[in-house]
Amino acid sequence: MNTETLSGTSAIHKKIKNQLIIVRRWNEMLHKRISLFNHKIIMNELITETEKERLIESILWRCKYQNNKIIYWREKDKYLYPHFLLPTDEESRVERSKKIRLITGELPRTFLLSHNAYELEALRFLAMWKLDDFDILKFLECTEERLVHSCFDSFCVDGECVGLSLVLLRFWNTYKPQDIETINSMLMKLIDHTLNNTSKIPSFYLWLTLSELADKSELANEIILKFSQDLYKLFQKGWIVNPNNADRYNPIRKYIIKNALSKLPKFNYLKDAEVIISNDGRCYGRFNT
Fold it and tell me: The sheet that has 274-277: what strands, in order across it?
């Protein structure tokens, strides 16, 4: 191999490497935007129609861009991993991927939860704001087919499948809100497993999901009521705000507790409560009197 060939090969490798870096940054930016929009909804902040349209365009572009680039996953695990969105383009080696946090701060232990949550959170916004679009409906229907054929449909308890079932439940409540039977069945299995097993699930993601189901699910209200005193104490307790430890000290969790408790008549007044950062650097729930 001559010098010119080596130089050309090196240039190609460098170009591919730079493209992967750019794509990774795009994915990180998309994940941050998805988390931000979720947080704005949790905090009851306004999202403009322009902001919605821009997020939808970004998600659709990523879906179409990656659609033909994750063939490896479709052959390796036809139903277990995303078909349209992955946090990386290096789809042939999952070890090169980066696990990303759930929108509630928990860091998944497995790529199974991390990568599926990444896709389902994005598709959930498409279902929420643009369900009448043909391309979007196609993505959602293909994802539905994948999920129905996976172990999630039969409520698998291996590894982080339980945590993923929780993410799936929240997605399903947005995508198929009229499917009450499936939603209640999934919720009952999740609650039964949570109350009778020591295996960990993303607890604040659970409270987020229950707060969103409470308006139409008596079971969700019963669970919130069962743990209401513990949640109330957590809302009052000061948390040191530490961005390097988002798994424990995440202010958005105060809003999740507030939203869950305010679904109960006894704590309805918490709708007007505030989440503040005091001079001591701690995050508190404050009641307006």
Answer: 239-240, 282-286, 274-277
